[in-house]
Design goal:
seven-stranded mixed sheet; 21% strand; globular; five-stranded antiparallel sheet
Length: 474
């Protein structure tokens, strides 16, 4: 048992020494209520469609206190946290605990390139692209507001913003690709338009660019972010929201970050109303889910390059970042992130990269990026980080994240509801706003049917779930 802890404030950071089942504040009525009650939810198996049979407990909760555990402090986890605080009914006490032993952005989210737009490599609007784009931009605005407020408070803060509004340019990679890009560019979102440029026009935006097939797609409304700074700002926004709600409603709202390892789901089931798993590729570290989800892992290395001080040819402040076989996410006139390699079925979770692997990956990426931006060969390597992504299966709608209730998959029959946000793949930044909103609404209402069926269609292919449904109906 961990040593006794001092009472926490409304928001806080808990160290890895904390026992996840220990009352973080003995005087906190939220925790006391969770220990003393065993909610009378009614029959989990009664009524509704098969989807509702799997996870609908009752109508939305009317209890005065609700506790949520979120596993993972990346894009998905912090999106879920924000939406839980935002959408939980105002007249209730709420506690949200985020568990992540690597801290905020310690996984693949923190290594993401940060290039944000709603289109496929062929410039086709992704499935639900308009919704993904809208929800993501809303979360970016929330994080920017929190970041700006923090900078005002800390007068000695020299950090800049978290969103770079410089657009993105995608050169055509083949003559066939030219025809496809032109066709798809005619159908785009008004909020993120696509423009076709010839090489001369593209070089006006990016001096030194090469467009071998005399065509590039320009997305002036696309943005790039600095992932870790964004995630820190989003967590600050959650803290601010919890504090504001506590003051305005008189009902305590708490959000904590617990930098500790959770070895299994069942250790949390007795203390929380819902547990939302947002671990990305690390979901396989949970024994209840290891090998049970239709996910593949892919490790990607991202290199950081600087233009030497003595070298001319700074990248213009307003020039767009570049998407090609290797992307270039420019952070300033002399700083760029370049990615990414693809190492399928890797099991390496660590962000750190050895010098040898860093050199090999950077050489590979420069050889690809220099086809379209030869000047990149003049830039010097600073270092590299790696992220292990969880890739979902390909469907008729593309690569769709996996959402839904997990109770039948893990065989849990407690009062705790388990939820999944997984398989965001290489588009975690774009997807995280909408999937976090949908999952939080499902968790609050105990109703999986609020999630569009395309996100939970993966469950039909899981024999353990199908068998359990048949058993329950017999």
């Amino acid at each position: 048992m961990a040593p006794a802890l001092e009472p926490l404030t409304a928001t806080g950071l808990l160290s890895s020494r904390l026992n996840p089942l220990q009352n973080p504040n003995p005087l906190n009525p939220i925790f006391v209520g969770a220990l003393s009650r065993r909610r009378k939810r009614g029959n989990r198996n009664g009524g509704g469609s098969r989807c509702n049979v799997l996870c609908t407990a009752t109508s939305p909760r009317t209890m005065s206190s609700t506790r949520y555990a979120i596993l993972g402090a990346g894009f998905a986890g912090l999106s879920v946290a924000w939406h839980l605080l935002k959408h939980t009914q105002k007249g209730s006490h709420v506690c949200v605990d985020i568990f992540d032993e690597t801290g905020i952005g310690g996984g693949a989210s923190g290594v993401a390139g940060g290039l944000l737009h709603p289109y496929s490599p062929k410039a086709k609007l992704l499935w639900k692209g308009a919704e993904f784009w809208k929800e993501c931009l809303e979360l970016l605005a929330v994080a920017e507001q929190a970041n700006n407020a923090q900078r005002i408070k800390e007068t000695d803060c020299v950090d800049g913003g978290i969103v770079l509004r410089r657009g993105i340019l995608r050169p055509a990679t083949s003559q066939k690709n030219v025809e496809i890009l032109i066709e798809n560019a005619s159908s785009c979102l008004e909020s993120c338009i696509l423009q076709t440029l010839d090489e001369k026009a593209a070089q006006f935006l990016i001096p030194g660019l090469c467009a071998p097939f005399d065509l590039a797609i320009y997305m002036p409304g696309a943005v790039s972010i600095q992932p870790k700074r964004y995630l820190q700002a989003l967590f600050s926004a959650c803290q601010n929201l919890a504090n504001d709600q506590s003051k305005s409603t008189g009902k305590e709202r708490i959000i904590n970050l617990r930098t500790q390892y959770v070895s299994n789901l069942h250790q949390l089931s007795g203390e929380y109303d819902s547990v939302i798993v947002c671990l990305g590729a690390r979901v396989n570290t949970l024994p209840e889910l290891s090998g049970k989800l239709p996910l593949r892992t892919c490790r990607g290395i991202v290199s950081e390059l600087h233009l030497p001080t003595a070298s001319r040819g700074e990248y213009a402040d307003q020039s767009p970042s570049i998407l090609s076989d290797a992307w270039l996410a420019f952070q300033g006139p002399r700083q760029v992130y370049m990615g990414s390699t693809w190492d399928w079925n890797s099991k390496i979770y660590d962000q750190n990269v050895s010098k040898e692997e860093c050199a090999r990956a950077t050489e590979e990426l420069i050889s690809r990026a220099s086809i379209f931006y030869p000047e990149i060969r003049r830039w010097s390597l600073v270092g590299a980080k790696a992220g292990l992504r969880a890739m979902p299966p390909l469907t008729e709608n593309g690569s769709v994240p996996l959402l839904g209730c997990l109770n039948d998959l893990i065989g849990d029959r407690t009062n705790c509801m388990f939820w999944l946000v997984g398989g965001l793949g290489a588009r975690g930044l774009l997807y995280h706003g909408l999937v976090g909103k949908l999952t939080s609404q499902a968790a609050i209402s105990c109703d999986e049917s609020v999630i569009p069926f395309e996100f939970i269609d993966w469950k039909k292919r899981m024999p353990c779930i199908v068998d359990d449904i048949s058993f329950r109906f017999n």
